[in-house]
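Reviewer 2 asked us to include a model.

Predict the structure of this chain.
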Amino acid sequence: MQAWDRLNTAEQIANHLREELMRGRWTGMMPGQFRLAEELGASRNAVEAALRQLEHEGVLVSQGLGRKRLIASPDPKKARPMRIAILDYEPVPVTEGYTVELQYMLIEAGHVAFFAPKTLIELDMNVSRIRRMVEKTEADAWIVCSASREVLTWFAAQPLPAFALFGRRRGLPIAAAGPDKIPATVAATRALAELGHQRIVMLTRRATRLPKPGVAVQAFLDELKAQGITPGPYNLPDWEENPKALHKRLELLFRITPPTALIADEAPFYVAALQFCTSRGLRVPQDVSLICADPSPAFEWSRPTVAHILWETRPLVRRIVRWAANVSQKKPDLRQTLTQAEFITGGTIGPVARAGRNFKR
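Predicted model (structure tokens):
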């Protein structure tokens, strides 16, 4: 499915109205919601939501309740299209679809948005290599996805505007957005402990663990301690970020003191852990409980339902588009925003088994 097919009705209307305004169809005052609803064959609620979105973007100006909105006159000295580079964590074929949707939405807003020549994984999260690539890339602003603290510290110190999507951004002078996974992580960990699990392991990337755990990972460790479980390297194991290293780590984990529950920080890690358990005759959740700390469209098709942490990507995309609008008008914007996340109890967790099954190598 194409990215624009996932837009809701109000957003589709907002995009259409924005394009018509750019063509100069209306000047002065914007037609009212009743006229637009009749013309577009849409509900007045959807049209009103679209008009409010254009208001928030500064395209329209409210004149008060019951009055038509004023069409803002852009100042060409302030507003300008930008070349925005998206520095993704992994190559587009394996990354999440929201970065492609983000690119589309930025283009719809009048910018030139493109993916950087290399990803953070391909650059080994190395600041020197990233710096060289940034210097060679013609871009007015950067969006950096899931970067380490060191990388985001470097971007925050550069004259080029940058936006941190996820990553170790808290406390840095850089615009940023991401889900607030702390309460959901605590709820997931507590749910496992209440089911009798003591050997709980989180599988997460090094950037979230080093040089010290990020806030969500620390929340996991703190909740283990609150539940009477002394956290250590067993609960947060180290491994290199590649499939071979992940499966080797799983082999070692299950060889001597097998975990009774796994929390996979991302959907690919969850799938890998599920495949690992299945190939060795371990049943989910009878022998091993599994939780994914991220959402995935595939979970809608899974039976039993997948226990996971749910959060919406669309508010993050809209936040970045607003940031780009502010930067293009030379308005300072270093605001960091958090979206809500919640733990969804699914059929992949259950009470800890009374007696462990033999691990099949």
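Residues 274 and 290 are 8 Å apart (CA to CA). The two ends are 40 Å apart (CA to CA). We have added this to the supplementary material.
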